[in-house]
Amino acid sequence: MNKKISLGLALSLIAVSIAVTFILTSFFSLQSFNTKVVDVNEKAKKYNSLQTLDSYVRDNYFGEINENTLSDGIMKGYVSGIDDKYSRYLTEEEYLTEQNDNSGTLVGLGLTIAEDESGYIRISEIASNSPATDSGLLENDIIIAIDGVDVKEIGFAESADAMRGTEGSTVSLTIRREGKDTEYSFTRRSIEVTTVESEMLGNYVGYIKISGFKQNTSQQFIDALERLTANGATSLIFDLRDNGGGLVSALSECLDPLLPEGVVATAEYKDGHSETLVYSDASELNMPMAVIVNENTASAAELFAASLRDFGKAPLVGSQTYGKGVMQTTTELENGGAVILTVAEYKTAHSECYDGIGLTPDVPVENDVEGFDAQYSAAIEVVQQLALN
């Protein structure tokens, strides 16, 4: 038999339910409000301290304040204050330089320089296919003047800035070699940075050296891979020593032709959600492979190495890697600058994140003997042994 309740009792139950709901909602709203008030108060303290400092400096500083420089300094200080070694604020000029670097192209002369003990500038490397290539300049030549201005007078940093410029502009360098000074004139132009080098070794071992992952790296990598396989390579060595990483998008395109179809790596974000970072299609290269790594193999380069190993494609040869398994995004700000911020950690589909730990090689080898690359030799032995199995 169905039991009935009176209208009065029903209304009472509804009232109680509404009251409980109101109390719970009020409680959690109050908790949220109190948290926000504390947060607002804390922020107010920080900004009030900054305002106090600003007033004091403006009232007492003897020199002139450049407002743009001051603003950039405040932004840099804020990001520096979160104490993350991979996050940083970029001024508008620094952001443009970062974009050019990531693109894999640069505008200039094609010279890598270093401060010489004499106080002048030493040429440490000359890029191929650059304005400096056919000039007759040599590594270890000394730059003593730029557009007639003595390097010692203005210092290394300002001299390096003076060598930069827009495409099509000109610059003259005074070069000292064996006590003789000669002036050279150059026209700056866009230069493609080579991040992938390859060669065929003995016994049809293909060797690919990747120095970084930039926007043009994937095409250079695919060209090298196709060239080696077309010429009969039966095994491959990927050398990622001293590769500090770069763009994950470029890394993904390099891994794609090597791995089977599926998710290769994921990114795990602060709020707990994850996203696919690297995905491979159905095409897959099957042949013996090995990856050479060292203590300077970091970030995207470590992910490349970890992915090939975790999918059973290649053992790692060399020394323990750096251990950077966190990802940064770059966001442009209204002032033309940008913030590079650590937003996630990443890992392969088959192993945990290696951040702060690094990758332990399957074949540990140290380069202890000067003039002999033991890691390179060991990698050749590894792929040759794999070819026999």
How would you explain this protein's 3D organization?
The structure is a single chain. By secondary structure, this protein is of the alpha+beta class. Helix content is 36%, strand content 27%. The chain contains nine helices and 19 strands. The strands form four sheets. Strands 3, 4, 5, 6, 7 and 8 form a six-stranded antiparallel sheet that branches. A six-stranded mixed sheet has the order 10-11-12-15-16-19, with helices on both faces. Helix 6 packs parallel to helix 7 and helix 7 runs parallel beside helix 8. The longest helix is centred in the first third of the chain and has 54 residues. It is flat and about 75 Å long. The model has no long low-confidence stretch (mean pLDDT 89).
Features:
single chain; alpha+beta; 6-stranded antiparallel β-sheet; 6-stranded mixed β-sheet; 36% helix
In short:
By secondary structure, the chain is an alpha+beta fold. 36% of the residues lie in helices and 27% in strands. The protein has helices spanning 7-60, 67-81, 92-103, 151-154, 156-163, 217-230, 248-255, 300-310, 374-388, and strands at residues 88-90, 105-108, 111-115, 121-126, 142-146, 149-150, 170-177, 180-187, 189-192, 196-200, 205-210, 235-239, 262-269, 274-280, 289-293, 316-318, 326-332, 338-348, 363-364.
